Known about the structure:
Order of helices and strands: HHHEEEEEEEHEEEE
Strand content: 35-45%
CATH class of the largest domain: Mainly Beta
Radius of gyration: 53 Å
Largest sheet: 11 strands, antiparallel
Number of helices: 4
Distance between the termini: 160 Å
Amino acid sequence: MADAANPLTKPTKASAPFVVFDAASANKAAKPKAGGCKAHDGDADDAPTPSSHGRRRRRRWLRWACCGAAVAGALTAAAVLALSLTVLRVRDPMLSMESVAVRRFSVRLEAAHPARPLRINLTLSGDIVIRNPNYESMRFGASATEIFVDVDGAAEPTPVGVGRAPPGEVPARGASRVAADVDVLVDRVSPAVVAQVLFGDGEVRFDTRTTVDGRLSLLGGLYGRRTVRVAMRCRVALRVSAAAVAVAGSPACVADFGR
Length: 259
């Protein structure tokens, strides 16, 4: 009965669900997705690649190489400057005569020379010190020492003797001592000086001049060789008495720049 009272009815079109399509809302929902995809694509383009890493590494190494070359050049220039002011700078050696002594004194007559029968010979021994201020050792040759005496009426001092010292070597920034024996021919000077020597009248003054030639090998000869020459003048006084002839005091020496 109930089934008869409420017969089954078919659904109509009006009762079917109705869906409204909103195009504006659909566009708004789609735009963020599109933007997100675009941002993602941009990040993919900006991502570092192996080639960009290599370029950055090469530029970094190039900067380091330039800095290293600049530092090496500055150090080389400083080293060359230091060498030029120290090792490669050649300075003249210095001479000094520490002491002078009379080694031999003789007076004799020679009848074979009537013009000058009286022979007065005097041998002086000088202690010469050669100082080398350079940073390389110096070899020097045989040094020559000349002795002069002032003669009345002479324009220049008269040479009365000459002597030589043996060659040798002076260490770097060191000193070497050599002995020079000088034979003085007193009879060649004026009669007044001869009378002083024979009769013991006061002092006799002599002037000496010593010259030394040396050679320096810079950096073992790699930078070349330099020749140096130095000279000095000394004043030596002899005290003459009836008993003996001796040196009075120490020699007074000065550098001879006019060598």
